[in-house]
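Hi team,

Below is the intake form for Proline iminopeptidase-family hydrolase from Geojedonia litorea. Please confirm the fields before the structure is written into the shared record.

FORM ID: S-0412
PROTEIN: Proline iminopeptidase-family hydrolase
ORGANISM: Geojedonia litorea
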Amino acid sequence: MKTLHYALISLIFLVASCVNSEKQSESQVATESGYFDYSNSDDQFTGGIKMIPIETSKGTFNVWTKRVGNNPKMKVLLLHGGPGGTHEFFECFDGYFPNEEIEYVYYDQLDSYYSDQPNDSTLWTTEHFVEEVEQVRKALNMDETNFYLYGQSWGGILAMEYALKYQKNLKGLVISNMMASIPEYEKYAAKVLGPQLPPEIYKEIKAFEESEDYGNPRYTELVTQHYYPEHVLRIPLEDWPESIHRAFKHLNPNIYIFMQGYSEFGVTGSASLKGWDVSDRLKEINVPTLVIGATYDTMDPKYMEWMSGEVQNGRFLLCPKGSHLSQYDDQKNFFNGLIKFIKDVDSGDFDK
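The structure came back. Fields below:
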């Protein structure tokens, strides 16, 4: 019996030793990869944060960026929505990209919460923001060997505009939750999304819009309670992530209204994005491109699938459970598809 007893004890110690050895090996590999090693970086002191000076026609201003991880082959610059939103819409990326050792950079565009806010509407143009992205790219040493540009919503407009001018600098492009035509987006909102609301609710919303009474608390209540949980983030409002509440709290209404307008069903009045349309130029984009759409999005997923066929090297990712913020309400499909795209392009295995 003693012999059996000692044999069992020896077996237990052997198994435990193997498990510990495996864990130490995994830990050693993670450490040796250098992904989280900032010791040779000029932004170690700030934890990856850099205020990057941007030259404009109205002077030089600083924009806020924060790098997460190190990977010389895969660097993703995140363009937030709005206009006037913040990087906070992307904070859930922390739960996925580090495990894949994908370097990514949070970035607040000029006049967004963490960056300088000159509040000069002459700078609120797609042309300005394209040049701003280009200056950020240079400051972060991103180039055609490693630079992936991800744009969501308004950030998707910006990503498309950047690619149409500077695609020689890109390794990959991601257009997420944004159509290439504002007029087509408005048609989809009017013909499909609006009528999906309860008739009495939609009628009341349209009445406020026709009278341009956008500041009415009742209008805000109707849109927030009935439209947002269906098409912006398909989670009960009381369960929305803290980062999303923070992002909406920090959104700059001045630039948002100037470029987008007041309505959630299109671009209103003389807002500067009115009529924006690059659908006939998508065929000029030849870098590997991922277009992300979602079944319940504010953007037409069928149109976005069409976009993926218009660019020369496109792939479409549908988030079947997702809405406009599908990085939250359909995370499994969203991140699996996004990570696969980045790694396929990196390895040279990208196909449509």
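SUMMARY LINE: The CA atoms of residues 215 and 310 lie 39 Å apart.

Thanks, M.
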